[in-house]
Amino acid sequence: MDNYINKLSIKQWAEDDRPREKLLHKGRLALSNAELIAILIGSGTKEESAVDLSKRILASTNDNLVDLSKLSISELSQFHGIGPARSITIIAALELGRRRREAQALKKRTISSSKDAFEVMQSALADLHYEEFWILLLNRANQVITKVNISEGGTAGTVADPKKIFKLAIENNASGIILCHNHPSGNMKPSDADIKLTHKLKEAGLLLDLPILDHLIIGDEKYLSFTDEGIL
């Protein structure tokens, strides 16, 4: 039966098997990831339906949406039936999902643990192929005033300017600073350079009465806290 369905276009499928109709009548939670992507791309090819094409794309990332979100336009366009326009549609939808997660995290503005800081910063740093260095600026109540991208680098590292960090903290009337950067490799172990920079900023912060509260190294679904590990 499945082989027979696969030979039909989506318009020829039973109504319950059509992604758009399924969402309309059963709700979005009833759809698989492949069916949701099929709605985005609209149609398949002569050889396969939009759903089968979507399944093939997902299979290339082991059905991992985080890894899918890292694919570029050129990488997605390598799939037969997915050109630049459809690649852009998929990337835009995944980016909206990332921004929704970011907006949700920012609703919780009081930082009481490293996990709270990770949840605020995860969407900004987790999916990147290169390193970025950010700071979270907190007030006296440990509420987030703002988060700022300090620098971008390559796959091996990035540079953080202490002058820029403390200038921003003073301008925003911050009472504390949390340092954050990602490791694209997924290795959460801090480098010697990470540790030296953290200690340098900590010493400068003590002189300016702007304490460095923590330094997080962030991955896709995990993080390392210098404070929790006793490094800070």
Q: What is the strand arrangement across the widest sheet?
A: 2-1-3-4-5
Strands, count? 5
| Distance from first to last alpha carbon | 61 Å
User: Sheet with the most strands?
Assistant: 5 strands, mixed
Report strand %: 5-15%
Q: Helical content, roughly?
A: 40-55%
Oligomer: single chain
| Annotated CATH architecture of the largest domain | 3-Layer(aba) Sandwich
**Average pLDDT over all residues:** 85
Number of domains: 2
For CATH, the homologous superfamily of the largest domain is named as: Cytidine Deaminase, domain 2
Q: The CATH topology of the largest domain, please?
A: Cytidine Deaminase, domain 2
Q: How does the overall form come out from the CA principal axes? A: elongated
Helix/strand order, N-terminal first: HHHHHHHHEEHEHEE
The gyration radius over C-alpha positions equals 22 Å
Determine and state the CATH class of the largest domain: Alpha Beta
Low-confidence stretches: 1-5
